[in-house]
User: What shape does this take?
Amino acid sequence: FAINQHKVTLQLGSSPTSSPFYMALQLALHGAIMVVDEMIEPFRRIWCLFEVDLLEGKPLTLITEDGPLQDRRDSGSSQQILEIFNALAGVSACDAVASDINDKLSIWYLISNEHVRRFW
Assistant: This one.
């Protein structure tokens, strides 16, 4: 699933919950996949974190240039897997980037827990 990067504002809608990503992930019965590198760049973007949050316990398969991460546990790729897990340990929605600050604020609100939202 992708959007036209030259018409992002038109295709994303007025809020994260009106985006095509939100709608598609609400219908995802079997989870989602995400293509990552050793630096897990998608996890550094607020929209990608929002999409992961929408899975609500459904599986997320991480795909690298060598294929699905879970298929490589015994293939001698332990160093790459360790690098990815170490990078994941440092992921924070506070540090995630967005091209539009309003998107970032809206997503922070949506993914925060109910106790935080009371003070928003």
In short: The helical segments are 8-12, 20-27, 46-54, 78-89, 101-111, 114-117.
